[in-house]
What does this fold into?
Amino acid sequence: MIYQGVIITNASGKIGGSVWSHNRGGPYVRTNTFPTGGPSSEQTVMRQAMTDTNQGWRDLSAVNRARWALHTLANPRENRIGEEHPIGAWPEYAKANLLRAYATAWLDIPILPVVASPPKDQHGHTPLSQISVAAIADTDTTAELTFSEADRWWSLAGSGLCIFVSGAQTPTTNYFRGPWTLMYAVDNGESSPATIPLPAAAVAGTRLFFKARASDSWGQLSPPAYTHVDVG
It folds into this structure.
């Protein structure tokens, strides 16, 4: 639980039976709930990716562990309530590699190799321009997604762009929080637009949301880019 002030005005995390969070409308509190049923196949792959990333850290050389330690001290990150502090060598390594391990395993396309050593001269986010999706018709099973070939990730070997897609939503839904399904990873140098498979055939009168996140050859993640399309 992270909070500021004796009278709490800004908080993020769980306490007792409540979850404190925020969205575009501001801070809010909701009841903590617990999922039922077993994990999906995608969740199982993600858990394995977490295990593999943890093992990757254990297998790192002492030199590379020391590099991650120096990297995190030199580059504090902002937490959920706006305070900056180093997150630690292992979290930095995991932040750089977990999405890469997950995408490689879930999509079975090994285009995102493990990043063993942190960037020497840059930290933070890799840039990502806005994405767009062409019109989608009823029963379509793919979408044409346009991205910028001028972004740094596109020209660097070992980089990629992960594309997530929502399930069908009502056309009045303006903000989608998940669950997202990772459907495609664009390899560096791949021409835009890319053909993205959909989780299911599109249905007229629904809305689909798309999220993209780039990982460059240093493992730096981009901020997410979003767009949505109403199925005609």
The chain has a mean pLDDT of 88.
